[in-house]
Amino acid sequence: MTFNDWNFLVFFLPAVMAVMAIERLRDARAILLTVASLVFYGLSGIEHLVVLIIDTIFVFAVCRSDKFTGNAARLACAISLPVVLLVYYKYLGFLVRTFLGIDEATRLFASFSISHDALLPAGISFFTFHLVAYAVDRYSGRIASSPKAVDFALFISFFPHLVAGPILRLRDVIDGLSGLRAYRLNREDVSIGTGLAVSGLFLKVVLADGLSRGVAPYVADPAAVAPLAAAYVITAYSLQIYFDFFGYSLVAIGLARFFGFHFPANFDRPYSSRNPRDFWRRWHMTLSYWLRDYLYLPLGGNRAYVRNILIVFAICGLWHGAGWNFVIWGLYHGVLVVLYHVTRQWWDRVWAPLQVGLTFALTSLGWVLFLFDWDKTIAFARALAGQGSGALGPPDAVGIFVVAMAALVCFFARFETWSLSTTRTPLRAHAWSATLALMFFVSLLFLESSQTFIYFRF
Amino acid sequence: MLRLTTFIALLCGLMVALALARDAVLSIDAFAEIGEEPAAAFHALPPTLQTRVKFHHIERAPRYDVMLLGNSRAAAVQSRDIELGGRSFFNLSIGGRYFRDQTAFFGELSALGKMPKVALIAVDRFDLYNDDEPIWPPYPRRWLVFGRDWLGCAAARACDAEDLATMMFRELRNSFREFRALLNFELLAAAWRLHVAAKSPAGRTKFDIEAGLPKDDPIDANNPHFGLGRHIVKGLFVADLEDIAKLSAAVGDVRVILFEMPILPAYHRILAETPYRDAPELRRLFLATCGRLRLECHPTEYVPPDQARRGWADTTHPFGDVLGPYVSRFLNAPGKP
Questions:
Q1: In this structure, are A64 and A153 located in the same domain?
Q2: Is residue A340 part of a domain?
């Protein structure tokens, strides 16, 4: 089940909210919300659900002891199973293909009657990071004592963040968990939650999917793309992936608000960044902070800046997908960050809009590695250089209009700020409510043809 | 702070406006504008909206002499395919429909006072199991039908309660799908295309039956039954036949002809040798009930291959030049006294 699904909007969410509103069930709210989250996840496949449950129980059980803090062997044990399962489900195919070759890998998989690409549990990269963060925090003593089992289960499985983040630490949800029993849906949470969720749905269903429809013909045959059309594809896909993931994050944060949880922001207008380092402080922020705290700093941080940045970004790329294109994408960003580090005294003197434009262009170019596999990337690069057939020309006026509208929203709209504002004049409050109603209505019109969130693949 | 009343009121208002706008778009009498061969845009509409467009035409047209009620298997027939002898004809067949729909349509025709003089009702061959969802009467009448069905099922020895429950569940899902269809930009666009096609000679495109039907269904001699799911609940089938008999008797001058659809000649032989286990019993039930109710009913017949005709789109979908003569024989045979 996904947020842009009729069944979720019409049945699941209202049913869960209704059950949570029953005062008599307040003692069981954490259990009920956990069960609802498992149902939400289980609808995508029972095997996936089993993986989630086993991972959760295992990490909780290993980390529960008071002797866990400072015990490296226990930490290694705790993270071993989630990491092994992540490698098995997400990377085994990639590793076997890399080290044995495609033919041998195909033969090997066929002999076991398995196909790893089809088995990947949704959001496994996300909940594995949750579990690892928890284990490391218990080891370091940042989490002094083990939470209640049901609270831990809810922290890991809570449906708004389960499939595609934001990536949370226990401290991000501890207030929500402890306040769940006494929680009552109040006007402020409804107001903010609705604003965020509706804005996010609109960005995904209308803008991201609208851009996707424009890009689709070019994706099918990258070698035939004319150079000007290639520039359109790069820009449109860059905006699409932003609205797709930003939209998801807004919906997740908004839905969590309906249950009294305050998730951290995941985006801060990343395409307005002035340099690559700034971009990573504003794009998928919860991942950036996770990588900083649990990988970059343990590696030594700034003491070996270039080496550590390249390692972190290579792993960041690999986290996104099991393929060399993702590793190269990660390294590409690592190199950009290092280059900025080396040239920052000149870079920072450039006219600010030019810095933003350059950062946007470099970032957008990188997304090509997300859009295509390696062979298609090469074909697209050739087409961009004018060496393709050029059969697919620039888009029509509608395609250009959609990109222009998306760019305006990207650089000038402030959905998060607008949603979080709770002090408005009556006139502005009515205007904001009417805008949300209109956005929700338009989103519903396009819901039937909406596509899966891009980050569900990760 | 969000004003929930403003939010909800505007949202509901927009939904109602959309429903009204779509109804206004669909209120065009496409069949009067285009003629018997509707625009391809018509077939882009979901069955519920196709039904609405056809009934919109029937409401405005004079009473037809002959009407054909069926699903996609009967949809290809046009007046040039049937020996009508100067009588007017309208094909009310809608793709993806079930026998219960024909009963419901028959009731709607009666309610509109547009019952034809001859109603040809196509019944899928009993060997074919079909998973299509019926169009039930609108709510709240639908709940009455549900209740009646359960009572009928309890009373009938042959009724399979599990089948009935499955059908009901499907119907609930279908109701939700209809609600979703209300809010669907693509359907709105399809309705608009029909409107444009009907109004603009340049926008008209003739419906090519071959494009509108599925590709050839392969015949598997070892497993010839389609396995599309059950669609005949015996107890309900009898109840539907009773409804048809009652409705036609109430009008008086209506001749009702029910006929089991033919099938591709090669497939006919296979099914004759290995019929679906319930098919002979259902056929007996069909003929016995018709006999009791004095309805004119015909079991399926073998249609020999004919090179001169276009023949079959697939194993179960005949073109008009095959089904037309098949139907004409029943139409032009002397009726029951």
A1: yes
A2: no
Closest residue by Cα to residue A172 from A265, A36, A268: A265
Domain-ending residue, one of A184, A209, A226: A184
Minimal-distance CA residue of chain B relative to A444:
B183
User: Is residue A453 domain-resident?
Assistant: yes
- Identify whether residues A72 and A209 lie together within a single domain: no
Q: How far is A305 from chain B (nearest CA, A)?
A: 46
Q: A305-330, pLDDT tens digit by residue?
A: 999 999 999 999 999 888 888 999 99
Answer yes or no: is A378 within a domain: yes
Q: What is the pTM of this model?
A: 0.75
Q: Please give the radius of gyration of chain A, using alpha carbons only, rounded to the nearest integer.
A: 23
Of B1, B7, B8, the CB nearest to A424: B1
Cβ contact A432–B188 (<8 Å):
no
Residue located via tokens 């980390």: A63
> If 0-12 CB within 10 Å is exposed, 13-18 middle and 19+ buried, where does residue B202 land?
exposed
CA–centroid distance for B325 within its chain: 20
DSSP one-letter string for A343-371? HHHHHTTS-HHHHHHHHHHHHHHHHHHHH
Q: Do A423 and B1 touch (CB under 8 A)?
A: yes
CA distances from residue A190 to A252, A422, B2 in whole angstroms, order as listed: 14, 11, 8
Task: Please indicate, yes or no, whether residues A164 and A209 belong to a single structural domain of this protein.
Answer: no
Write the single-letter amino acid at A285: M
Nearest to B1 among A422, A446, A449 (CB): A422
Say which residue the tokens 């939904």 belong to.
Answer: B15
**A160: containing domain:** 13-184
- Are residues A194 and A174 both part of a single domain? no
Provide the domain count of chain A. Answer: 2
B184 touches chain A (CB under 8 A): yes
Render pLDDT for A5-56 as a digit per residue (tens, 0 to 9): 888 888 899 999 999 988 888 889 999 999 999 999 988 778 888 999 999 9
- Considering the domain architecture, whether residues A208 and A164 belong to the same structural domain is answered as no
Q: Which of A127, A149, A184 is the last residue of a domain?
A: A184
Residues A36 and A154 in one domain: yes
DSSP result, B89-145: EEE---TT--HHHHHHHHHHHHHHT---SEEEEEE--TT----PPP-PPPTTHHHHH
